[in-house]
Amino acid sequence: MKKLKIPLKIALAFSTSISASTYYATAQETASQDEDVIIVTANRRPQPLSQIGSSVSVLTEADLERGQQPFVLDALESLPGVSTSQNGSFGGSASISIRGAGGDNTVLLIDGVQVNDASAPGGAFNFATLDTYNISRIEVLRGPQSILYGSDAIGGVVNIITKIGGEGLGGKIFVEGGSFNTRRAGASLYGGTDKIGFNISASGLDTDGISKADENNGNTEADGLSSYTFAGKLTAQLTETFQLEALGNYTDTNGFYDAFDFVASVPFDGSMLQTNATDQFAGVVRGNLELLDGRFTNTLSAEYSEINRTLLGDFDPFLATGTRTNIDYLGVLTVNQDWTVTGGLQHEKTKSEGNSESSFDINSVFGELAFTGFENLVITAGTRYDDHQTFGGNASSRITASYTVDQTGTKILANWGQGFRAPSISQLTFAWLTFSGINEDLNPETSTGFEVGFVQPLAGDRVSVGATYFHQKVNDKITYVNFTDGYDNIDKTLSKGIEFTASANVTDTISVNANYTYTDAKDVTDGNEVPLIREPKHLISGSIQWNPIEKLSTSLLVTHNGEEQQLDGSTLAKWTRVDVRVSYELMEDLNVYGRVDNVLNTEYQYIPNYGTPDRSFFMGLRKTF
Q1: Which of 7, 30, 307, 614 could form an SS bridge with 38, CB 3.0 to 4.6 Å?
Q2: Is the Cβ–Cβ distance between 399 and 379 less than 8 Å?
């Protein structure tokens, strides 16, 4: 493992912060209450969940601590409509797909700042080492979201909201260890006054790991991983109406992986071991100004993210750097009790160096109108115009509706929306044997989708059930062809399906949560129907939580991933994994916890020929002060 280096970016991460904005703080405070959860991501302003006309899921800090997953990727696996994929555990490249749209069509935000990798082949973010520590909540918005979030948001948005400081002084610390010689630890310090708040944190994981290439194919070497994250957040209420915020977040990752044999379409064995070093930084400074007695909020953000990747091995080094610079203005005007107007301007510059040398600009303007004049009914309608440096202009629209029936408590939601995704820099400038320059024949992806669903409370709100039907078409879907031809457009893909959710407080000590997603994702070019690769038709996730006594908490987690079509035409077998979690309060603010992953020792794969851990054990201590 490479020794950890402390560059200037870490110092910036401790002294600044990616803005949570005043409304993010409000969301954090409200999420833990018994009232209707406040959602920020859906319309870029705080709204109760009951008023949102889009499918959104929330993982709170309590959910993350109870789940004990070290990485965000594993936590997202429990949500409806979200499938995950990783080419080898402990640092293998990882992505998520929402409702069959693929990782390239998912926007990842940290406190509202996009951190997708501009140098990656499809512009997707690598979720492999994104740590769950110091996260207050995760909001996942499903379906086309281009109106407010621009290119790449065809499938959905994942917004990670980190913790914020407040009056007083406090902190947390944890240590844990377990199978594969894994060590993990973290600490945070937070506090402030009524005028200023801060939060600084550090966390890290070091493990011997397992072979990225499946051990059942004779790969017995351990491909280790070390990953360290440093973050800082600062908020300052400079006047009664003006707040300044800043954040920095830095991650340094070093690991081993098995090179891929493109001829045999399998990973090499341990004799072709490679090293992978990645460091990523995200930072923002944001000002919030309230006018008209708080009815008109204005937010101006200057955002920057950078990801550097270095792959070393028997081949020539592979170096890539992707940067994303964003200047963003957002205004929210409450005209009266019935009308709210949201609008903004955005200038984004993405740049790639190393494997693809180029940069592109997008200038955007967007607006959305919300009407709440009818009791229990909320309607929003909006539009966006993107002016891309290469492709020119594109307009997208969206309309949503949410209605709650007083007599039964039933919430009904429906929406229709369009999406737009420009090709990534790598896709536009792919060069191998015969091509160099910009592929002017490659078109942007455009999409149209809708959903309709309901959530029904029962038994005095002790039980909740829901169902949502979704349907989305993507035109000019971008796909990889081969080394010589690079990327091309598929005529059309179609993803449709249904999500079911259920939760119940069976007794005062037992609760159950479950969801099932059926996704039919296909290439429907020229009337043909070919399943999209790595998109399972069936996803099931569920948990049973039992708290037999006040200080003891236990959970049984079940995850099922259905069969998946692979690039070579084969089918990846379905699998079911069972995990167990236990936590006990030794004394006030001191908890001991443990988990057993893959209790039944199931043999399974996310990608053919890449391994996953056998039954494994971990224990830790968590202290709050």
Answers
A1: 30
A2: yes
